[in-house]
Amino acid sequence: MSVKTFEFTVSTKGGTDIIDITSQVQKIVAGSGMNEGSALVFVPGSTAGITTIEYEPGLLKDYPEFMEKIIPSNIRYHHDDTWHDGNGHSHVRAALQGASFTVPFTNSSLLLGTWQQIILVDFDNRRRNRRIIVQVNGE
Ligand code: ZN
User: Taking ligand 1, which is a single-atom ion, which protein residues have CB atoms under 5 Å away?
Assistant: First the structure.
């Protein structure tokens, strides 16, 4: 078993922007020299998260609408009383979603479903450049 850590950068628009990062992660796994193992995909920061979804136009609207319903952007947050950065909802959404996702692979190929993509979701209220960390564990 060995561990290798890689990273790449993604530009986002913020506002629950959803970016498909599957091809970047697959490229890293293929280039890692490992045949079998798992890839941990992680975003540093407290206003973004990683998960999977079927990356299609309907869900790209449904997911932000769902987040707006359960964690509205137009209500009062104590975070904003303290920091005045207006992104209390972004932090709460990121905490709920989680900052990492682990994907197994064999034959240097991610074991994802056909309609399952790995996504970065940026909940912040402004444009951001996000570092994505991919830590590959395998042999
Ligand atoms: Zn904040």
Answer: 85, 87
